[in-house]
Amino acid sequence: MKSISYIDRFDESYRNSFSFSHRIKIRFSETDMFGHMNNTAPFTYFEDGRIEFFKKIGIMQAWMSSNGEKIPVVADIQCDFIQQGFFDEEITLCVKINRIGTSSVDLHYLGINQNRESLFVGRGTVVQISKHSGKSVPWSEEEKKRMLQLEEPENL
Amino acid sequence: MKSISYIDRFDESYRNSFSFSHRIKIRFSETDMFGHMNNTAPFTYFEDGRIEFFKKIGIMQAWMSSNGEKIPVVADIQCDFIQQGFFDEEITLCVKINRIGTSSVDLHYLGINQNRESLFVGRGTVVQISKHSGKSVPWSEEEKKRMLQLEEPENL
Amino acid sequence: MKSISYIDRFDESYRNSFSFSHRIKIRFSETDMFGHMNNTAPFTYFEDGRIEFFKKIGIMQAWMSSNGEKIPVVADIQCDFIQQGFFDEEITLCVKINRIGTSSVDLHYLGINQNRESLFVGRGTVVQISKHSGKSVPWSEEEKKRMLQLEEPENL
Amino acid sequence: MKSISYIDRFDESYRNSFSFSHRIKIRFSETDMFGHMNNTAPFTYFEDGRIEFFKKIGIMQAWMSSNGEKIPVVADIQCDFIQQGFFDEEITLCVKINRIGTSSVDLHYLGINQNRESLFVGRGTVVQISKHSGKSVPWSEEEKKRMLQLEEPENL
């Protein structure tokens, strides 16, 4: 199995460590002339999955309110490609929290196709900042609690 | 020659009726698995060309100012494909005003490749609206004047 | 109600004339700095809906086979925006055949949000061509039959 | 200065270590409702810059030939965001080789705006594979020579 710097062991137990997932289909417009999913597509999937994850745990709503002063920004993001993705494949995009910082959260991502093959994995840090000052804003106790309140891993 | 509903005669004189153009390259990520430019790409090119056009005539700046209350929105837009576009082709994206309305402007678009072949044409209406009320805002005399101050058609 | 050139009367009966629909969500990455869905997004939705429609009636499969010599290409496409779309809105993207030509088909599109408001409508012609010659390939009797075998309009 | 795992010291001397760059403008459609460049955009810029780089050193041409059996694929790619990017900023996208493997190459990327501020950095591995078998194909001596034939760093 491929060695990935931010994963201790990329095996079945790693795959089972995710308790949240979101379904996505590889769009025709996300393929390129080499006949496969273009390498930029997973970053859109990560964003979609991350937002659904934040909605589920209940911290997205405040960010989206019109008088919201706090917004989440991506500090860094990366993707490792395990095997090529193709048009019309149904991707189960798994998201989990790896580590919670003062005003940031490190997320892991995993994309699995309908044959239960891993297509890609990824990780990245999201930081909560003030929209106006651009400075980081520490998580409230309530937000931390919500992030820690994760369900038991479901069978993906 | 292809008949296009919004063009009287799609010939060399139509091509020469444009006095503004913007250079664009077909990106790898804008191709699809059929090996050519995906049909969604020209709409991004139209937006790029339209913005450069509005900047040139001097009406874009007010829309982009942070306290700007007025924004331009696309009311309708369309594209007719003349021949397939391919990766790395250099497109001369031509833009011109077809008609100025009370608070709208009808623009024509033309994409020509490096061999001077027409790849696609298009048109669409942009309306100036109030960001808060969502209602249309008539052009000022100054804005109309700027839109009418077009240079002589350059040799594209 | 807005007057749209390719629709006789854009009313409830027009909305009920669609018998196929596909669900789509407006992605965060499909919004722009004006806070709404960017005008290029519906063209991706049209492509997604069109492909699901062609899969349902059973003519997509041949186009996707690796030894497929025939592919569908967009000859023209257009969109009329009725009201602004926003992040996270669930769009019911309706697709129907308006007219079948010798080697082409004219499709109509309609995007409705979760409040049953029409956000945008569109139309466009898809032509079946030979991948190698680039020339149009007439529909077979089987393909025409499949396109005519439409179900009764469902309540959208 | 931000600490980035794959850069020894992210300082002026790092910035001056690039000898190739490509100009890109942040498109309106690449912004999102938070008012800045969406986090997925740099991956498209990396692809554009990488392709221009491969064209310059002369190894892109073989990959694009119609009877080409070898294609480059992205094995992994990542981006670290230094400061927010905004609509219409002109980005100087720098690309350089960090390490050449048997059939892969590790590239570094750097995006600088018109005020010479670093907006983002990145890195990623591209592997040359056989289009049909999907297996990696070692670089030829000629290809390696071309990759090593880098000019002196120019003043970016």
UniProtKB/TrEMBL annotation, chains A, B, C, D:
Q: Which InterPro entries match?
A: 4-hydroxybenzoyl-CoA_TE, HotDog_dom_sf
Task: Kindly give the SUPFAM superfamilies that the UniProt entry links to this protein.
Answer: Thioesterase/thiol ester dehydrase-isomerase
Highest taxon in the source lineage: Bacteria
| Record-linked Pfam families | 4HBT_2 (PF13279)
Name-wise, this protein is Acyl-CoA thioesterase
